Amino acid sequence: MRGTRTTGPAPATGSAGAPPASTVRSLRARTVRGWGAVVSVAVGIFALMTSELLPVGLLTPIGSEFGVSAGTAGLMVTVPGIVAAISAPLITVLAGRIDRRIVLCALIGVMGAANLLSSLADHFSLVLAARFLVGVAVGGFWSIAGGIALRLVPEHHVGRAMAVIFGGVETATVLGVPAGTYLGALAGWRTAFAAVGLLGLAALVCMVFLLPTLPAVRVVPLSALPRLLRNRPAVRRGLALTLLLVTGHFLAWTYLRPILEERTGADGGTVGTLLLAFGVAGLVGNVVAGFGAARHPRGAPAAIGATTALAVCLLPVVNGPVGAVPVVLAWGLAYGAVPVTLQTWILRAAPGETEAATSLHVCAFNFSIALGAWGGGLVVDRSPVLGVVVPAALLVVMAVPVAMAAGRFAGVGAGPP
User: Fold this and answer.
1) Does residue 153 register a pLDDT over 90?
2) What is the Cα–Cα distance from 261 to 388, expressed in whole angstroms?
3) Contact present, 374 and 70 (Cβ < 8 Å)
4) Distance CA 246, CA 122 (A)
5) Contact 101, 153 (CB under 8 A)
6) Which of 39, 54, 134, 192 is the most exposed place for a label (fewest CB within 10 A)?
């Protein structure tokens, strides 16, 4: 996808062969507007991911109020994950020729309204209905926004713009989930959900004013998705890495609060602090991956899998909140690199088919979130909460041979992975 750049006669030049001042100012203004649009999309991603992951920090109080087990409360993560997995390819196809700006704004508005609905729910089933809407918004928004940097900034800025957009995922972990946990501890989980709903509406305002019109560059037919899977082995391998890394991560991380409560005796505020440490490390991992994922397409996911497996395996020996800090930091550093690393893999694996490839990636990513949360829920309802450690570690460590067995990317080496 090449965005809306156009070609035409060369611009008039000044006396020394340089463009005239008016042209330079115009280019500069377009670049500034493009970066403003990038930031607005990052705010939207931040709001969406905060919404999707918020229950992780509030699992215990929500389960207690509605009288459901930890595994059942984990459905608040499973439901939007499943729905997002389905809605990602469907919305990409159904969007057709609709301006992508309109689609993105509509989806972020749905997310804001759904969280306000959750804050007013008087039954757990109503919370799950609202989480269904969150899943629709997450899947559709991410599948379109994942490759939108190509259309907002000059080509030489695309890598940095992608890091900013996907920095919204890590910032949600750094600020959104810990802040929601703190707010839930201070004023109740309903206040936390209402705050995320208002955040979604604020993101909508930002996007309305900062996003340019984004007419569809190409319509993605439903047949393009299976064709992409058949013809692009690199895409299939990228989706396999997504399933292993993300499912394994969420199998354990969804239940991090009860794990920390059991192993360290931590209360809600302490858990919020540890989640903040996880998020800060994740932000560092996101930045590192922004520079390293393209240079080391095989090594990056392999390192993520090995580091995550090590961190998860250390959970049973954690003793006290201080002892949990290095484990949480290492885990956060590894997971923070996941979104940019996998999105970089997918975009390079399917050049020219950005929306179709990204929709499949978002489908796999969110299905993996749902599968991990659901599988972890089955384990914690039938065994000690630390029972999630072994299956989580096995899944993420399997990503190491899958990544290292790949060939080299076109443009970096002699062929696709």
Assistant:
1) no
2) 15
3) no
4) 32
5) no
6) 39
